[in-house]
Specification:
Blueprint (H helix, E strand, L loop, with lengths): L2 E3 L8 E8 L5 E8 L7 H7 L9 E5 L25 H14 L17 H15 L9 H4 L6 H10 L5
Parallel strand pairs: 3-4
Antiparallel strand pairs: 1-2, 2-3
InterPro entries: ACP-like_sf (IPR036736), PP-bd_ACP (IPR009081), Ppantetheine_attach_site (IPR006162)
Keywords: Phosphopantetheine, Phosphoprotein
GO molecular function: phosphopantetheine binding
Length: 167
């Protein structure tokens, strides 16, 4: 069920909120907006709806809001430029994040919550990472705690390397 909503960002012609279920079965609320490519600043749109309730989990540009919901954008708009994984560890982490978040592409410097992640997704990602790297972890604190301050795949890879799990 799609529900029309208002947008105040220049260039956006119309917007609607629509439910979306990821391939892992997570229910998200997506704000779809009609605009020509490169006509709307996606970060401004995200800021415009930061206080909206319910708050959209994702934003997707559409040529026509009547089209079926398609989140085919490989990466949602975030504040950092895309950087591909530089190491095997970073590559494995972004693959886990992509699966948890239902995305096609995640950059090594992308912030988990900026990609649409939430606390439940963070727990899913930490459980997956612990399953892969936990047996090799040699850090002073449990791996789950060591990962709490890391918000990007690159930061997590650094924690894993420092704790001996990525070697």
């Amino acid at each position: 069920m799609t529900e029309p909503t208002t947008v105040t960002v220049p260039g956006a012609r119309a917007a609607a909120l629509a439910p979306y279920r990821t391939r892992l079965g997570r229910d998200l609320l997506v704000l779809r907006y009609a605009a020509d490519p490169d006509e709307v600043d996606p970060l401004a749109l995200r800021q415009d709806h930061a206080a909206t309730r319910p708050r959209p989990d994702r934003f997707a540009r559409a040529d026509d809001l009547a089209d079926p919901l398609d989140l085919g954008d490989p990466r949602p708009p975030v504040g950092t430029p895309y950087r591909p994984p530089a190491t095997d560890t970073e590559a494995q982490i972004v693959d886990i994040w992509a699966e948890v978040l239902g995305l096609e592409e995640v950059g090594a410097d992308d912030e988990f919550f900026e990609l649409g992640g939430d606390s439940l997704g963070a727990v899913e990602a930490i459980v997956a990472l612990t399953g892969v790297y936990g047996p090799r972890w040699r850090g002073d604190v449990p791996l789950e705690l060591a990962l709490l301050g890391a918000h990007t795949a690159a930061q997590i890879a650094a924690v894993l390397t420092d704790g001996g799990a990525a070697r």
